[in-house]
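Appendix B: a complete holo record

For completeness, this appendix reproduces one full record from the ligand-bound portion of the collection. The bound molecule is zinc ion. The inputs are the chain sequence and the ligand SMILES; the output is the full three-dimensional arrangement of the complex, encoded as structure tokens. No fields have been trimmed.
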Amino acid sequence: MRFNLLDYPADLIRLFYPRICGGCETALVKGEQHLCLHCRMELPFTTFDNIKDNPVERIFYGRVMLEFATSLLFFSKGTKVQHILHNIKYNERKELAIFLGHILAQRLQQNPYLKDVSVIIPVPLHPQKLHIRGYNQSALFAEGMQEVWNIPIQTNNLIRIAETVSQTKKSKIERWENVEQAFVLKNPAALKDKHILLLDDVLTTGATLEACASTILQATSCKVSVATIAFAMQ
Ligand SMILES: [Zn+2]
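The structure of the chain with zinc ion bound, as generated:
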């Protein structure tokens, strides 16, 4: 019988072939890391990095006052970006998240609107979900960013107190009500007068990030910006 990788569970394959592209699942060759050269070249950068009034910022207009907002990559269904994020979230490809955090930090650390950012807060998972999944993918992006940008990460202050059920079938208002009361800031004084960068994986309606930013801004006087790895244009 011929040996076919597809006959085996992904976890088992990775045990023996750990160097697989996170975008297309082909074996990586020498010199390639995390993504093959092809997938890396095809990453759909938004290039919103230094642009004020960009489409990501506009999502939040009239909802919450942000200093700046941007996303690294465009997201759409069936694309490699979706596959990469799925691998990070469900297949424990943690090193891929760190790698994307590096890229995001490289692009943001020179950003004039973010030059006084002094703390990164990844959007928290509900503790129960964190327990089940074992890790928060947004915290991994933050770790990658910190390795490049050297800005401290805070994961024990903004807490998710309510689990948000699947958002996809709800209206915009229902989604907002669903997340509005979902977060609490335990120690507002720790963020006083700081510029906080909120970090999440995918931006769709912005309801979760809006709720996080509002919770922080209502609790203390500070500035909040937002960065996400991917942006799903509505
Ligand atoms: Zn690839």
